[in-house]
Amino acid sequence: MPEASQLGLFLTALPAPMAIDFAGRAEQAGFRSAWFPEITFADSFGPATAAAMQTERIEIGTGVVGIWSRSAVTMALQAATLHQLSHGRLLLGLGVQARGYVEGWHGQRYHQPIEAMRDFVTIVRRAFAGELVTHEGQVFTVRNFHLDLELPSPPPKIVIAANGPRMIELAGEIADGMVGWYQSLDYVRDVTVPALQRGAARAGRSLDGFDATVGFPAVITPDDSGLALAKGQVMMYATALGSAPAYLESARAAGFGEDAEAIGERVRAGDLRGAVDLVPDEMADAMVMAGSAERVPRVSTAISRRA
User: CB under 8 Å to 193, separation ≥6 — which residues?
Assistant: First the structure.
């Protein structure tokens, strides 16, 4: 199994007190980073800040926060505060999120996602640098903002959530790292790595020191029944065309395109149980970390070697 110091833990869909506790346990186990998502079960910065105050070494990631969920100024203020309180351990994970989140929940207009992310990262990075920020962007505009807060050096790393080729390219061009989700190894090889390289080439920079991270849904069980339990996750992501069509492309890259199409047909027919039943063991094995505490390290080692 890869050294724990190479691994991060996504603390997804947990009550905040449990997520904070698991971050402390992850530090004790030697994990490199703990990531706090923000969807419907908690905000990111609250639990992340509490975890930072109770840990000393582990990196603290917002995994991820939507750029339409708060202004760039508010994001810079929250991120800078967390970076200060954590003594320089913040990984600022930013994503455009799904259109339904942006428009249905936050009442914002989802448009020009690549340009929006470029604007947002530019504003936040300039604020971290201590500049008086005025930015007239295609999507986001800020005038005369200065972050009056002394940041630990170096400033927070900005990590872009990216699954589609264009957003991955942007990460390679302007970010300090990229975090993907539900990306098969074949997709990483054929899509993610070349896109990062194109983005870096466009910026005339090297990817040395760039953190490229891919998260996998995980179901750990006393026996190998976790593989069957994880099939619901495979079904959900493989058919999430409205929010993240790259998930389907990831399955196709791994050779499960026909399976994903058949699963999608059952979902559209309203037969979710039937859709789960169509997920083959091999597809679940390729897309998630599942099984016993003895099996998952073997899977992780195989992934590490292929990557």
Answer: 212
In tens, the pLDDT along 187-242 reads: 999 999 999 999 999 999 999 999 999 998 888 899 888 889 999 999 999 998 77
CA distance 170 to 202: 9
Sign of CA dihedral 68, 72, 74, 75: positive
Report the amino acid identity of residue 130. G
Nearest CA to 163 out of 195, 139, 118 is that of 195
Digit-coded pLDDT (tens) for 120-150: 999 999 999 999 999 999 999 999 999 999 9
Write down the H helix ranges in 63-192: 72-85, 99, 113-128, 165-174, 185-187
pTM here is 0.94
CB-based contacts of 74, cutoff 8 Å, min separation 6: none
**Topology (CATH) of 4-221+289-306:** TIM Barrel (3.20.20)
Token output for 132? 């008086």
Q: Could you write out the DSSP letters of every residue in 196-259?
A: HHHHHHHHT---TT-EEEEE--EEEESSTTHHHHTHHHHHHHHT-TTT-THHHHHHHHTT-HHH
User: For residue 196, what are its two tokens?
Assistant: 């990062």
Domain boundary assignment for the chain: 4-221+289-306, 222-288
Enumerate residues 6+ apart whose C-beta is below 8 A from 268.
none
